[in-house]
Every structure is written in C-alpha cells, then in structure tokens.
Write a structure and sequence with these properties.
The chain is mostly beta strands and 164 residues long. Helices cover 5% and strands 54% of the residues.
C-alpha cells in the first residue's frame, strides 16, 4: 500500500495481482505504453494520456502531464506512512531541537559529531530495526549540540538521539 497526494488530496492505493484499489474501491483500466515516458489510459468511457516529465527520487515526487495540465504527485510508501503514523514525519513546525528514535533498534553508524552543521535531509545516523537499515535524516538545518548515542548501542522508541 502507498499513498499519492495530488492537489492537496490524498489517495490510498493498493495494488495486487490483477487488481488496483484506490480509496478501497476497485478500479479497472486499460493501460498502454506509448513510449518510455507516455501512457494511454482508458477507464470506462474516459480516455486520458499521461506523460512523465520529471522524477525526484529523494523527494519522492513525479511531475506529470495529464492531458494539457501539468501536475506534481507526491508519493508515500509504506515506510513513509509508518513514520507518519508514529509522528516522525518531517513536517513539524518550529526550530530543530532534537531527533528521537522512531522505533527501537541498534545504532549502526553515526554520520555527525557535536559542532557539525547539518542541512535538512542530511543522513545523521543509521538505525537497524527489524533487520532493516534505516537512514535517519535531519528534519531541518542546525548545528549538532550533542550526540546522545554511540555505535552498537541499543535504543528505545522516542529516545533522544541527537540534540541541536
């Protein structure tokens, strides 16, 4: 499952073999690739052409042209949705003060030290959780005041890892 945000509206998308569900409603469509970046969609009596104009893997956005309109899609995969559900999304307001562990895990790598300047999106540490390596990124710009963890240290959910 993933979500797609289009013009401030969020759509929940589930794709299984032979079926696609949008907001829990099954949809059927004919899809034909017209080139490496163009597709032709037919759903019921509606026909639509779409072209991929740009893709930003870091921001998880797609810029597409639907008919004669250009729009941007924001994609959120299951990991983004899980972090959002746990309150770890990076859309919080206010100044950057600390980074907390989004889940219990083990510190595999520290990328910053006290005094370092970090920019929004910089990886500050690698946390292993559920046998997966998770890159923990800075939600904003700031100077590292303290690193409260060390390599190979186990951490609990919501434990303060880095202070700014």
């Amino acid at each position: 499952m993933f979500s797609v945000i289009l013009q401030d509206t969020t759509y929940s998308v589930e794709k299984n073999v032979g079926e696609t569900r949008v907001n829990k409603q099954s949809i059927t469509w004919d899809l034909k690739w017209m080139g490496d970046r163009k597709i032709h969609l037919i759903q019921g009596a509606r026909s639509l052409e779409a072209e991929l104009l740009a893709i930003d893997l870091e921001a998880k956005t797609l810029q597409i042209r639907l008919g004669h309109k250009t729009t941007t899609l924001q994609l959120k995969d299951r990991f983004d949705l899980l972090l959002e559900k746990m309150g770890m999304n990076s859309t919080g307001a206010g100044s950057l003060k600390e980074i907390k562990a989004p889940m219990p895990g083990l510190i595999l790598d520290l990328k910053v030290a006290p005094g370092d300047l970090v920019k929004k999106g910089d990886v500050v540490l690698i946390l292993e959780a559920m046998k997966m390596e998770n890159s923990i990124k800075s939600p904003g710009d700031g100077f590292v005041k303290a690193v409260n963890v060390s390599l190979k240290q186990s951490v609990e959910k919501n434990q303060v890892l880095i202070q700014f």
